[in-house]
Amino acid sequence: MKRTSAATSLAVLFTTVFVLGIGSGAQAHESRYVRMTFSGTNVATTINLQPNTVTDETLLTGNGSLGAFVFRELHADGASPEPPPGCSGPNFAVLAGAGVFTFEDGSLLVVTVADGSGCVHLDATPPYSALTVNYQVTSGTGRFVEASGELTMSGTLMAVLRNAANAPALLTNSGRIRGTVFGVKH
Fold first, then answer.
1. Fewer C-beta neighbours within 10 Å, C or N terminus of the chain?
2. CA nearest to 58, candidates 104, 116, 120
3. What pLDDT is recorded for position 183?
């Protein structure tokens, strides 16, 4: 009787360990609501992502619900078919691009630009641009190897330096990123 009871207990323990993934190398995955803040720079480049556009390079550092990060992105700005809601000044569309978040643990989160828009507020002191970019999470490494989801960046850009044609050449960029990332490993 004791022998059967011990064998049954061992079988139940083994089944529980296997189902929970304990000791099997399985990783728990979850969806994460993302809240991050950032600051950094934005500059126009000579890279041409699309005809009749200006390609910007963004370099940001920040922190949030996924940890501290550095974000590097290239995106093409072009003519907007219509201004963003509430924009009465010059405006532009974010047409294409991609970026990579690098986290302190070495994990990478790769995103592509879904769409976006910017509005230049020349009547403000100092003038600034409000920028919104929507991203699709496409891949990653480390804890983001199976990641997917959507993120939205809302930033404020202000000119620091202008070129010979008086166009902004170096801008600050600060704001927040919100969204959901699925498939994050613990």
1. N
2. 116
3. 93
